[in-house]
Amino acid sequence: MDYKKLNTFIASDIIQPFYKIRIDRLAGVKLSDVVKRKNPYLFKAKNIETAGDLAKNILDAFFSSQEETIFGDLMENLAVNICRQIFNGKKAEEGKYRSVDLIFERDKKVYIVGIKSGPNWGNSDQVNTMRKNFIKAKKIIRAKFDKIEIIAINGCMYGRDSQPYKSGYRKICGQLFWELIFGDDDLYKKIIQPLDKEAKKRDATFKQLYIKKINEMTKDIVRLFYTRNDLDWNKIVDYVSKK
């Protein structure tokens, strides 16, 4: 692989869209939109006493519930792009293959891969659904590859799994996942370097807007939820839950 092209891809197709989405959502978010989706009892249990702390907790909760999915989708695109260059991997056709994101041949085997961010991604029903979809995908691919071995993989971009051999598929995480789709034991570390470099370029803009948004929300909290210079939790609970 041309690592210069890899670094360019990470900059243009991961970091740039990731920060654009974050900044666009940050610019558009309003306290009135977010606070009604969050658990006021949780914030009270954390003994939040100031408008600034409440604003920061609400805004951080808003982002934490979305960023894992956003970044996971972008990293999935990276995995498919890497595998395409090395093993002529292809993104699975939407609608034709469920739970499968990547299909490629390596060492005279066909791999069908469902890509997840980390190992703890779903409950037992979701895992069983993935397993059934792997069986269906194998039947479709078997019509094209008659005698070749087809291996179903639940590939996780980070983490570990001490028991990779599951019923009907393998669960391969972290270093082993990136080695599988690329053939390099160190790729999982090489990805970090351009991520770090590009993130530093763009994070300053995000932080400036983040501080402004915290201040804006703090003013709104004081206006809506303060009584005698204190947070009025009855007002907050009413705002979120009262019919």
Write the layout of secondary structure elements.
Blueprint: H1 3-28, H2 31-34, H3 40-45, H4 51-87, E1 90-91, E2 102-106, E3 109-116, H5 124-142, E4 149-156, E5 170-173, H6 175-182, H7 187-190, H8 192-225, E6 226-227, E7 230-231, H9 233-241
Parallel strand pairs: 3-4, 4-5
Antiparallel strand pairs: 1-2, 2-3, 6-7
Helix pairs in contact: 1-4, 1-8, 4-8
Note down, in words, how this protein is organized.
This protein has 243 residues and is an alpha/beta fold. It has one domain (3-241). The chain is 60% helix and 13% strand. The chain has nine helices and seven strands; from the N terminus they run ααααβββαββαααββα. The strands form two sheets. It has a five-stranded mixed sheet with strand order 1-2-3-4-5, sandwiched between helices. A two-stranded antiparallel sheet has the order 6-7. Strand 3 (109-116), helix 5 (124-142) and strand 4 (149-156) form a beta-alpha-beta unit. Helix 1 (3-28) runs antiparallel to helix 4 (51-87), helix 1 (3-28) runs parallel beside helix 8 (192-225) and helix 4 (51-87) packs antiparallel against helix 8. The chain starts with a helix and ends with a helix. The mean pLDDT is 92.
**How would you sum up the major sheet?**
5 strands, mixed
Estimated helix fraction: 55-70%
Rg measurement, Å: 23 Å
Structural class: alpha/beta
Query: Which percent band covers the strand fraction?
Result: 5-15%
Quick one: how many beta strands?
7
Distance between the termini: 59 Å
The domain count comes to 1
Q: What is the overall shape? A: elongated
Strand arrangement within the widest β-sheet reads 1-2-3-4-5
